[in-house]
Each structure stands twice: as structure tokens, then as C-alpha cells.
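ugh ok fine here u go
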Amino acid sequence: MILARILQVVGVAGLLACAHLAWQATPWGGEGWARARLLYAGAGAIPALALLGIAGLAAALRRQAAEIAELKALVARLAADQPRRTT
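structure:
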């Protein structure tokens, strides 16, 4: 779970850095329109979003593994509670 949180933190930090770079590429945040900075910001946002996606998948897999373990325990308990048929 710690790895997923680290990936989320790095992904959000990357997105914030890309947003800052994109802001600097505008006339309001920089010297004027800078197409290269906008391109770099967009290109950097892709791996940051990928890190967030990987973290989300890791968290979902962990939840599913826990749910599968609960279901296995339930099936084992139900199988142990049923009387055996001797026909």
C-alpha cells in the first residue's frame, strides 16, 4: 500500500510541475506564448498520469485480493457447516 501512495504522490507532484510549466508558457505566467514549453508540459503530464493509473490499479488489485480471501474463507466455512451425504 505504501508503494501505491508513493506512486500517487509522485504522480501528483509531476502533474503540478507540468501545470506550472504550462502556466509559464502563457502570457499571464511568462513572457508570452511558448509552444515548446506547452509541448514539454503535455509530454510530462503523460507519465505523471500513468503513475496515477498504476497506483490506482495496484490499490484495486489489493482490494480484490482481500475480497477473494474473504470469499474463500466463506466458502470453506459453508463447506464445513454442511452435513455430509452418505448415499
